[in-house]
Structures are given as C-alpha cells and as structure tokens.
Give the backbone structure.
Amino acid sequence: MAIKPTILVTGATGKTGGAVVNALLAQGFPVRAMVRSLDGRAEALRGVGAEVAVADLFDPDQLVAAMRGTQRAYFMAPFHPHALQSAVAFAVSSRDAGLESIVQMSQWTSHRNHPVNLTRQTWLMDRLFADLPGIAHTIVNPGMFADNFLRTIDFAALLGIYPVLSGDAKAAPVSNEDIARTVVAVLQDPGRHDGRTYRPTGPELLSGKQMAAVVAEAVGHRVIPVSLPYWLFTKVARQQRVDPLSASVYLRYIGGDMKAGVFEFEGGVTETLQELTGAPAESFLTTARRYSAMPIARQTAANRLTAMVKFMAVPFVPGYNLPRLDRQWDLPIPPNPTLGIQDARWREEHTAMMNSRLLQSVPAS
C-alpha cells in the first residue's frame, strides 16, 4: 500500500484550519499542524492524532523546519496588517523545503484595488503562489462563511433577536466543514487541480431576513431579524473580542461587498462541493443547528441572563473606528479604490469561475 504524503496545515487552531486537520485525519493522512504556541488548542490537535509544529509564519527558518518531511500544504494567511509578508516567507520556504503542492485559502473579493488592504494583499498572494515553479497551486475561493452569520447565535437562541447588517442583500453561506472538504479533495490529488480556482458555496442564496427564519427553525422558536447600523456592529464585534483587522474585513465585506451584490454575482451558488467530493454542500439550517447546540446557545436561565446583559451593554461598548485603525496601521491606499464588482477585469475573471465545471480548465484568477 502506498504511503500517504504528510500534509502541513497552517492556522491549525483556527476554524477552517482545525476543520481541515480533522478532515485529513479522517481520510488517513498524516498531518502536521502548525501553531504559534503550545496551548490547550495545540494539545487538542495532538489528542486527535496530529503532529504539532510550533512556527512563526513570518520566519522563513522556522517555516522550513516545520515543512521538512511534509509534501503538501494548506496555507491560510493570518489576519495581520502585513499578511503578505507571511505569504512571501511561506512561498520562499516551500521552495527551499521542496513542497510539491500548496492549497491556498483566498477571498472571493480578492482584487487589486479593493478598499480593504488585506483583500488587496490576498490578490497579490494569489499571484505569488501561482508563479512558484515546480509547485502545484490551487486556490480555494469561498464567498461568505456561514460562521460570519452565526456569531450572534446566542442572541438568537436566548433572546429571539438576529442582528442584520446587510439589508436585503444575499449570500450563499458555506460552512467551515464544507470548506475543509474542498481543501482535502484538492490535497488528495493536487496535480489534477494545479492552476485551478474553486469556489465552494452553500446550496442557496439567503438574505439576512431569510437567515433569521432558518436560525429560528434551528433554535426552535421565533427569531426577529433586527437591522443594525454599521457603527453598532463595530460595537458588537468589539464586545465579542473580534480582533480589529478581522472586524475591518468582515464588516466591510458585509457592509460594502455584500450590499453591492458581490456574493450574488452570476447566481452566487456553485456545485463545487458536489463535483469535488460527490456530496452536496450542507444547508445553512444544518450549520445553524450545529451552532445552536454550542454551550453559549443552550437555553438556560443563566445563559439567557448573560445574553441579555451582553445585548443591553452593546451601545456602551466602544466601537472600532476602522478608518482610524487604517491610519494607525499606515496601510497603503490605492488611488482609486473600487469593489471587485465595479471592475471589468474582476467581473470577467469571476464570471469564468462561476461558469466553470470541474473538468474544464479555468486558470486561477
């Protein structure tokens, strides 16, 4: 029996990275989980059978050491103002360590002139990895993660309130587990998928109000969608300890790209999961039920009181001032920032992605 290659997973303590680790182990692959420090999450990875390597994504020497003895890798850039530097370090190290393939997490909104710095950096990462000689490269390019819409599951389950920022705009939320299934399908046969871009999505487009109805079914009682202004969402993000850069990306995604129709572009739904894995994408209801079973969403008197206190405290929490943070980070700003959907090149590339089939040859954009 052929020996399966060892696969390096970056961001292994994160939501998609952890799901990739679990999915690879379930398929019998040896996994080296890369972490920043040995903590409880790292020990949990060891507990499920992964080898754990501590390395700094910005340090080429540590990266090469973590890569030695692995053949394939899943790369997800950190949420960091200088994330591009980590990608450059990873690219250089992968060449030095002799990796044979990289599956890269990208962004559907990846665009050279996007207003969000990390999204512009992601566009550069896409091209950086694509140009590595002798290393197969595949982009996984999801739209909105279902997780983004279920961060306030405790409010829905315990108070019957579902905050909405996106108005009537729609997306096809995809679960972390389905993203992981996409990544694993590619890692199993990277040569076949070299140069390709895949967009996993959920099975249907949903507005915020429709998501609230789905969440209501998941939690078993009425849930009211409540449209919140952008400034109030920055307070919710800070209360939930979402780091500033993540808040900058997610809030601008939902408040800008989503309202502009980026996630509805060319129908917004793909058959990527069915074609790659042989099984369809899970429904938003399935994902919501999993979240509603989390400890914070259990319908107990103590949880309900905690949720009420949190909700009532939101207006008094200092919100993130995202423009000020941009200035503090001293991030470069393009002379003419535009959302991808406003750019003819983005529309052309992403039309090709949405209309491609698995067996057709569509280069990574």
Notes: DSSP finds 15 helices and eleven strands in the chain. Residues 83-97 form the longest helix (15 residues).
